[in-house]
Amino acid sequence: MMGSKSAYEFETTDSKIVAYIDSTLRTNQTHIEENHLNNNHTNKYRIELSNDIGGYSCRLYYDTLYDKAYLEKDGGLYEAGTDFARYIDSFLENTKSLSI
Q: Can you tell me the distance from the alpha carbon of 50 to that of 10, in angstroms, rounded to the nearest whole number?
């Protein structure tokens, strides 16, 4: 539909959702050297976690064709679980960023 805008953010203060996302982002994942993430079958999301004293952000790449997920954080690219990617994707099916 021409001229329509979709929402570009999902925001929550639900402590269970925040705790799960925070725990997953802080878990050590396997570092990978390079992957071609600029294609038509990779969903790209920016995830931000913040509170009154600060926060951090990363990018999630979810390759739906090959069912792989990657987190770009701390200057590197890391493998991530596809369960986590599907969880984030379920909130953001029509959006591109997540703020918590």
A: 13
